[in-house]
Structures
1.
Amino acid sequence: MGTVIGNTIRARHVGKDIMAAFRTLVGGEVKEYTGMMAESREQALMRMKDRAEEMGADAVVGVRFQTSMILQGTAELLVYGTAVKIGRK
């Protein structure tokens, strides 16, 4: 049926940046950003799913994620795939 996308653009948060900088000194997972990225992925996936449903698709195949910096301190998370209609035999 065609390509469907979902995306979100997020800006860094000063409070999270301070904690992340501290974690880079002591090591370990930067949980502040891990949570933000998980939330961003879910939001982008839901937007892609909504677009597929609007097209009348039953599923999305070949799903890919991509990130890119938009401005300093902001990043886009993009998810895309192919909307398909599942035929019945």
2.
Amino acid sequence: MIELKNVTHVYQDENNVTALNDINLDIEHGEFIGLVGHTGSGKSTLVQLLNGLIKPTQGKVIVKDTVLTGKKVNLKDIRRSVGLVFQYPEHQLFEETIYADIAFGPKNLGLDKDEIEVRVKEALNLVNLDYEKFKDRSPFNLSGGQQRKIALAGVLALKPDVLILDEPSAGLDPQARDQLADLLRILHQEKNMTIILISHRMEEIAYLATRVIVMHQGEVVLDGTPAEVFSHEKQLHKLALDLPQITEILHQLRAKGYALNTDIFSIQAAADEILNALRSKKKC
């Protein structure tokens, strides 16, 4: 689906900061990738390369056999195929009605009126908002969580093959975060969408991702399943990254001698594992 070959990106200014350094990466269709790293690790730069918002200083970015770094690339098609949702996407709302805001992208694709309406309805349904109730309302009179849903619906209306989200749960209350997580799970599992999620919330990453990529100083330092990556407790702490809280508790209990698995990411499964360890009094 996406391939990066020897990609380096340097921001050309008075400091000439190297944001990415010789990245080689393959992203397969249907993956759910959690992209994590401390501030300044290169995460946001990396995802902006994937739909041609910026071009690398060196190397190649290939999306569905199209070399984005080549000449005469149709970036309009690429950006339809690779949807990017920035942090606080509600700040990008600008139309007078919700319908017009969601329809903006499909309209620019040259779709006819009937197809645009179908896509707006489908997008609102995906984010669990009633079409008739919301279509004529102003997006600026909604709650923050609802505004974010509308912004996301605007990207979903383009029917992208890949959905990239940069800290989508930032600033949301717990209920809105849970709703967003459920939506992303549905998009991945039921709609077979490839998703790349940047998040500092490791619980979110552990719950949703099938693969976790850890970046540090413009390089990929860990890449594997959540269980594989979160087993590197000491290395993650050195990178100023947390483990999921459940995983942290399991590691602490294991350090005290209890024989239990640490590659568990649900509260119920962790509770069962801890109870079994306490009942058996089995030590490592």
3.
Amino acid sequence: MRNLRRISLITGLIAFGLAGAAAARSEMLRELENSFIQLHEELRPCVVNIDTQGSLGQLPGPQGVPEGLEDLFRFFGPLDERMNPRQRVPRTRGTGSGFIYDKDGHIVTNNHVVEGADKITVRLWDGKEYDAEVVGLDPDTDLAVIKIDAEGDLPVARLGSSSDLRVGQFAIAVGSPRGFEGSFSFGHISALGRENLAGLAAQGLRFQNLIQTDAAINLGNSGGPLVNIDGDVIGINIAIVWGANNLGFAIPIDTAKSIVPQLISGGKVTRGYLGVQIMDAREFADSLGLPDAQGAFVKQVQPGTPAERAGLQTYDVILKVNSEAIEDANDLVKTISALAPGESVSLEVWRDEKIVRVDVDLDEWSPQEATPARGRETLGIRVRPLTPELAKRLGLGDDQSGVLVAEVVPGSAAEEAGLMEGDLIIEVAREAISDTRDFHKKLEEAAIPGKSVMIRYIRAGREPDITVIKVPKTSK
């Protein structure tokens, strides 16, 4: 009997302990749940919905989605065969997100959400709508600032820091995915410092260093905030990998902190410009006799640029800028871009196995400098050169030739043929293409009015495909 009573007592204590543990666990989960509820209530008024109308060019998204539920959310492959990721329409509507930056009515969003819009409407959390005007755009970082004249005090988002983020931290995305305003998704920081995302680079995103998150973001989240568990904005949602599950990217808020004030004060960001095409020096270290693998290798000097005027040469390796060491090509771009146009800089250059000094007076960077060949259009196609660096980023071989499609004009014969930005054209009329000049020459020669031209191309790392451009009868 004593043993039975002892067993009963132990059983009772275990049951009581389990019940207590369950109660403690429930209380902990309830506190966590309440924290997320309070976080949403705090953040929701700071986040806005942005509707755009006008000639916005590209509308990525699935076919058959009702008009008005898509934005210009930047994404890249692998592409889903069921999707039409580059559907182009002459005039359309788009939906994106943003957050209130200050009480003056400035709102931060993505450049690709509002660029080219004829009309921008901002809708606040309480349903009030205001017309917005563009204050400043920066395509290189895909940041934009718009402004509304609202009644009363506006709730302002609190900016955090992205410099001390760590993989594994909680992350919350707020915005209007697919037009569903006020949506709130929870996840983690899954990676930091994402660079060299070729699909985004091909779309004009020059500066990356992106935050990767598994918080669910979709079309419409563009420009909306990524926040931490304190409700501080740590990033601005920008891109997804199409077809992947919860694989998205955000611009670090520290990048926005340096860009947004410039956009508000001057409408744009001014950056230094050198005028060289470069690659990482590590690939040429042995052949050039470099002491180490650091630096930026100059593969071409653009004519009429500061680099040419200063005497920089092909095969030079830029080791330092104003005594600061340059790690690789990306580092040189960031360093030069951070300097003011007109500033004189001193370069330490490796040339013929010796170090020489080159002084350069920088010009101002213009986005047009990145794609000098885009100005010429043939049958609705503008192309850019396939550089060795781009070929490497796109996973192509060193011997791959061709030209990259930089733009397809809406309503053109090229659009009707199904060609898209980012396609690599390798043959025109069954003849191989070597460069942009060769492309335009062969296409113009083959473009007989009323006839068709065969185009062989590669898309997103797939096997080569063939399409036909039907030349308009009025074509010359």
